[in-house]
Amino acid sequence: MLQRLLRRLGRGTLDLVLPLQCVGCRKEGSGLCQVCQSSLARLEPPYCEICAQPNDGPRCSRCVESPPPIDGIKAPYLMEGVIRDAIHAFKYRNFRGLAPELGKVLAECLESTSIPATLLVPVPMHGRRVRQRGYNQSLLLAREVSKLTGIAVAEDMLIKTRDSAPQVSLATQEERARNAEGSFLAVRESAGEAVLLIDDVVTTGSTMAACAKAAKEKGAASVWGLALAREA
Ligand SMILES: [Zn+2]
Ligand SMILES: [Zn+2]
Fold first, then answer.
1. By percentage, how much of the chain surpasses pLDDT 90?
2. Which ligand is in closest contact with the Cα of 24?
3. 10: left (phi over 0), alpha (psi -120 to 50) or beta
4. Distance between Cα 89 and ligand 1 center (Å)
5. Fewer CB atoms inside 10 Å of the end CB: C or N, the chain?
6. What is the pLDDT of residues 75-129, one digit of tens each?
7. How far is 77 from 129, CA to CA, in rounded Å?
8. Where are the domains of the chain?
9. CATH number of 41-230
């Protein structure tokens, strides 16, 4: 009865009241348990050192032909199985209780690499989409990474100026590149900063490349990207 009532009030309320359940095995205690996390499909070499395209390393043909304006993108996992379920729950089903676990995944990945980061910048969503969803999942992730690493978050450095179609809805890399191009604007100086873009998933890298271009126009010394998972 109480559960039904809470469910009607929405997932956000449920998260606060009921124990967290693992998205993979339903075990109570956390949103993503250690067992399920250790079984996730890692992105293993060879992959592109710039856009993290799997099975095409050290640099994919697309990045050789036209190097994107980003120094590189890291993602610990492939977008499949339980991490895919976790990202979808976090993003589309209002399961915000996953933020600490997913943020920890990102922080651990960052610690295991030598990529520079003096400023965390969440990949922005268009204002209309934030209002629809109630939150920007990349911002929630960036805040968690900040708590664990002490690196500051620049929440309002980038804005999304155009409410373009979601990258996942487009079929080809060309369409995705065109869709992301010119959609982002840096509204704060980032002179000398080593910007680390934070997002949940990397589809082709076009979105992060467009963000990097905007940040570099405002003086960023380097721009890397970090996401939970990479689409194959
Ligand atoms: Zn589990
Ligand atoms: Zn590439």
1. 81
2. 1
3. left
4. 14
5. N
6. 999 999 999 999 999 999 999 999 999 999 999 999 999 999 999 999 999 999 9
7. 26
8. 41-230
9. 3.40.50.2020
